[in-house]
Amino acid sequence: MRNALYSYGRLAARRPWQLLAAWLLVAAAIVGAWSVVGTTIDDDVRIPGSDSNRAQEVQAAVFPASALGNGTLVFHNADGSVTSTEDRTAIEASLRAVQELDEVTQVVSPFPQQPGQPAPRVSADGHTAYARVYFDVPSAALDEQAADRVLAAAAPATDAGLEVLPGGQLAKAAAGDPGHRSELIGLAVAAVVLLVALGAAAAMALPIISALVGLVLGLAAIGLLSQFGAIPDLATTVASMISLGVGIDYALFIVVRYRAARQEGDSHERALGVAVATAGAAVLFAGATVAVGLGGLLLAGLPLLTSLGWTAAVAVGLSVLAAVGVLPAVLGIVGSRLGAGALLWHRSNAPKAGWWRRIGEGTARRPWLAVVGSLMVLAVFIAPVAGLTLGQQDDGHDPAGTPTRQSYDLLESAFGAGVNGPLLVVADLGDAAGGDRAAMQQQALAVNSALASVPGVSSVQGPQVSDDGSAALWQVVPTTAPSDPATGDLVTELREEILPPLATDGTQLHVGGQTAAKIDFTDQVADRLPLVLAVVIALSFLLLVILFRSVVIPLTAALMNLLSVGAAYGILTFAFAEGHLTALLGLDGPVPIESYIPLILFAVLFGLSMDYEVFLVSSIAERWRAERDNRRAVVTGLGSAGRVVTAAALIMFSVFISFAGQDNPVIKMFGVGLGLAVLLDAVVVRGFLVPGIMVLLGRANWWFPRWLERIMPRVDLEAHPSAGETPAGLPPLDEASDGLPPAGEASDGFPPVDGPVLETR
């Protein structure tokens, strides 16, 4: 592989414009196709084999309208009653106008059709009412424009002085696309970090360009692949977050390696070949470790996690392609101008011995202090995990003032918390379909009576019987919120105690709806969690065994990664579940942690931690192979790689934490959890704990059984060909000067070699 990468780097130096044009043509084709078909989104939660999934299948088959997109229109009169003649006339005129919209299939009025009938969608005090609106497209296809048309059609009610709010899926559509503010903030902060780390505007720009190319290609590829299977909207956001972070980091490693080779005296062509063959190979390996972590999500057997896993893996893969494929072509063009726009202080004010080397020397002198101190710091972050409990979020956890939160609060105050997450009881009549109508009616009445008598049930609406008489549907409104554990207990009681005795004559009764689906989802995540953890850890261990030809280093790396994951869980618990940072993040109070968030955090963070392990320990391993002095190898390797790993972590932190500004609490959790955990991992774990343990273990770090030596393939990421030598017999290069000064001199703003130049060797 190194031979091919070395040749590609040389080709990029000789024919950069041709290579860049070829890449742009490929990118244009992919993005052009994406612009035509778009991205297929489906936010419904499905759990194969679960009771909620069976209810969803029956509902989609016999009640197709209710299975498509729907939402609520909430009408509120704080000073009067919506049942007054004036208000009711305005509301009914609004609903007729909504019904006439092309995308609307049905509108269910809050008012009874016949005098004396109950009005469950009108509050007891008469101040609030809500209507159900059904659309001819899935919920994911509802957009801001559709919500605006519905609200515009409700103008008669607004003109009459009523407050009109969208609710449910309609409110989510009204909130619109969050835009790309988070990405722009992350890029801006990352640019500052890069400028300080690299010392030149031109060098700073290249990782940003590479990351943006990878991001666009990744989103385009995800969009094209989504035509074969819809993905949740969350998947594109998580993929963007990870793609930007790793894209900048991977490009940074290659740019730094190229600069180091130039300042060691290599020609432009040779330096680019070496950079792609060494740092490029490390980037490929690092991308593979992240993909292994994300691939573990596929083992959960849940469509949501499968989508999050493969979309993020595709995004990482395209970021790797941009760094290893597109970036060398751009570097081939920029060449000696890489130092353009250099910071003056960056050219002269840094000492030769970096502070990470001094930290390494201190660690070598007092390794126990570094290990114990690091573990104490990590213990502070891990400690809150003892109080970690998983739960469900609902629209009541969204920031105040958002459309979803406004309608949620209004409906809760008028009808109780359960109205925001009704359960669906679906009866599949089976052999009883088309039978004795009187018997069917008797059974329906029995179901109604049984449901209404259950403690925790606020109201029961239905049954709605299908046209062919094969199924019936009830809407059950709990007394508690969708996120309340009591609602989960109610679902369990309905399934295990209330409904089984009523399932007679071949009738099957299922409990569905999004609230029930999330409960099933939590149960299946808990069942599959041990398998996912075991496979990801085992595969990551195997990859590091192959890379470092050691058993001890991969084992300690896995343990260190678990500590970083534990710290991430502790941060989430402290910040969100206990509510200590929710006010700072724009939330009102404690927010439960969804069951899938720890699993996704594990998959992503385990892979990213392996990235830093690869870049740090490969630098240490190179010194070990050259000198066979473990203590010296740790000091020199940390001094060399510590700066670039820290810069990479700061960039990753900047990108991740910027997503905490989004309204969605789940995205906030990913941004805060991943951002702080990555920074903690790079500084505390890789900067102090891993070097301290390696010093204590000494030569045992490199123990490798002979039988493994014989069967394991060999991977060398960091070997540097000496002058006049190339990998695997490639012809020597012409080392004639290409206009750059020799090592130690500066030209055109390029920092001299004795300045703070980041290295990977």
Automatic annotation (TrEMBL):
Keywords: Cell membrane, Membrane, Transmembrane, Transmembrane helix. Residues 722-761 are annotated as: Disordered. Residues 206-333, 529-695 form the SSD domain. InterPro entries: MMPL_dom (IPR004869), Mycobact_MmpL (IPR050545), SSD (IPR000731). It is a multi-pass membrane protein. GO terms for cellular component: plasma membrane. Pfam families: MMPL. The keyword Transmembrane applies. The chain crosses the membrane at residues 184-205, 212-231, 237-260, 272-302, 308-334, 367-390, 529-548, 555-576, 596-621, 633-657, 669-697. It is found in: Cell membrane. PANTHER family: MEMBRANE PROTEIN MJ1562-RELATED, MEMBRANE PROTEIN YDFJ. This is MMPL domain protein. It comes from Salinispora arenicola (strain CNS-205).
